Every structure is written in structure tokens, then in C-alpha cells.
Amino acid sequence: MYTISKTIFAVTLSSLLLFACEHKEPPKSQPVPVNVITVKAQPVVYFDRYTATTAALSQVNLLPQVQGYITGIYFKEGSHVKKGQKLYEIDRHIYEANYRAAEDNLKVAEGTLKQSQQDADRYSYLNSQKAVAKQLYDHAVITLDNAKSTYKAADEALKNAKTNLAFSVITAPFDGTIGFSMVKLGDLVTVGQTVLNTISTDDPMGVDIQINEKQLIHFEDLQHGKGKGIDSLFTLILPNNTFYPADGEISIIDRAVSAQTGSIKVRIVFPNKEGYLRVGMSCVLRVHNQDSTPQILIPNKAIVEQMGEYFVFEAKDTVIVSHGDTTSKKKDEAPKTGMVALQRKVHVGATIGPNIVIKDGITEGEKIIVDGVQSLHDGSPVNVADKKLKEPGGKDTIAAKHGP
Fold this sequence. Notes:
alpha+beta; Elongation Factor Tu (Ef-tu), domain 3; CATH 2.40.50.100; four-stranded antiparallel sheet; 34% strand
């Protein structure tokens, strides 16, 4: 009897639990409070930013053309030097001695040539009168030809000795800045191998950037003068985040696009009379954007990045259907309305202060969530706050970079 009662109790308890489970409604998701803005297209004035490196328009390594010991250094390291200025001297004693010997050899060759010429003229006359043996005449002519060759060789030797003597003094090939000396007094230098120093031009100074091949046509237009009427078309931000006091102009576009990166080098030239720019500096080049087409601008905080792609959440009106058996719903019961967050993929453009340009993915008139996006996923119910946000944009010119 006790066993039967226990079984009935267990069955009854199980039925009650099953009944309770069937009628328990799942917890409803609470709407996430958010702020939204209405998307508008507007004129945007900004600068595209590119990572840049300063580069000399001309730069050479100074190499000795003669061998010897360094006997003189005549410049201050890191200073500006003028074309033709004396920089180094290699021991000149040997080259001066060779030059004097070459001069003496040329004088001897000149005397021999003069004597041979006189003999040849004399034997030529006697030969015309048939007053001398033909063999003597032939020998005189050959001797004259040999004397001419000897004189020519002596003359070339003198020129070579003079050149070597001149090469014992190294001068600046152009105006520019010279660096640290790689040799000291007394060092032995070897022809074409020992680097003495490096000298580079400093005014004007080149600034090199890499651009995507899609921007090539735009920069070619700028090179051909399309942007001449625009103020501050090319400006430079120095490593200490200050603006360089002069504007630049486009100089060179490289001959080919890199097959590996799809980019091409462009060189902008800046005046550098004060010497603020040095070769190899890392700077930021700003290029004035000339696109007058209205663009969509939203706050940067509205962007969500996932695996290298960019998304925003649109606040969309929808109908909320009650949980449970909708077929048992009363006919006169009106549906409840609300808003949900729908995830939208976008392509971003330049970042302008706290805002970012959207190239495509959203259109004017749509409501984009700008606050609370960290708590959202696609389809999340949202509760739009009554707070009115300031629309992005403005008339101020703001520096921009590519990407968020």
C-alpha cells in the first residue's frame, strides 16, 4: 500500500512539473538604450594623409680615384658645403713626382721628335736629288714615325699624371650637406672601394610617398596642373607633429606600379632654405582633397570592426510578436511596434577628426546607431533615446587619413 501511494505521488509531481514547464515563457530580451543619427550627405573638406620619407634629389658616396694615405680633411662634419669645395687630400708626394717625371719625359720626346723631323726632311731632299741611299731615307722616315708615337705616349702619360695629381684632392661635386667622415687622418684608402663620406643635396628636398594604383590618375592630374589653384595642396607634418612652414609641389611619379603591392612612388618637392628637412625623416604628407561631391559622414564610434571588415547598426522599425501560440491570440489585439538593430556592412573612407566618411553601404535618411553599439548584435531590440545628437561635419578643414 505504501509503495502504491509513493508511485502515485511521484506521477502526480512529475505531471505538475511538466505542466509548469509547458506554460513557462522564455525571458524576453530587454531593449538596449541607444542614440541614433539620421544619415545625411554633405560637402566635406579634408586632407588625405600619407606616410612619407624625405629624400635627397641627388646623393653620392665619395670614393677615392687614387690610392694613398689621407693627409688632410678640410670640412666640418654635417655642414653645408659648396660645389668645388676642398674636402679631402690624399698624400700628393708620389703623384707630384710622377707629374714632374712625365713633364721631363715629354720634353725629351719633344726634342727627339724635332731631331727626327729635321733628319727626315734632310733625307727627303737628298732622296729627291738621288744623292743618298734609299735605305737611309727609309730609316729616317721610320725614326720620325717612332718619335711621333713616343711624343704622343709621353703626352698621354703627362695628362694621366696630371689627372692623378688632381684626384689626390677630393672636392664637393655639388652644393649639399656632408655627413660623418668614414676615414681619419692617416688612413690608407683604396681606389673605388673606400667610402670617404656621403654628400646629398638639401635644397630643395624630396618627400616620397606610396599611393595605391587607383589614385594614380588623380595624382597625374595634379602633376599636370589641375590643382594649382588650390591653397595648401601639399603640406607636411614633421616628426614632432608641427607643420612645415612651406608648401610643396608634385615632382615625379615613378615609371611603374609594383606588381607585389599595387602601389607606386610619388615624389613631392619642398623648399628647404632653413635646412629643417634632413634626408630619411619620417613625416606625414597631407594632400588637399578636391572631391566636391557630398559625402556621408558619421561618428567614428558608430563603426564596428570584425575581421578586417567594417559594420554599422541601423535602427529599424519592426513589429514585435508576442511569444507563445500566436494562433490563440485575440483578433482585436493590436501588434506592438518597436525598433531593432540591423547590422550593415560598409566601406569606409577618410577619418576626419571624430568622424569618418562612408563610401557605400548606407544611404541618406537611414538611422544609424552611434552609442551602445558594443552591446548589440544583429536583430537586438533597441530603445532609442530622446537625446538629440549633433550631426557630424562642419566647415572646418580637418586633416584626414585613409581608413578608420
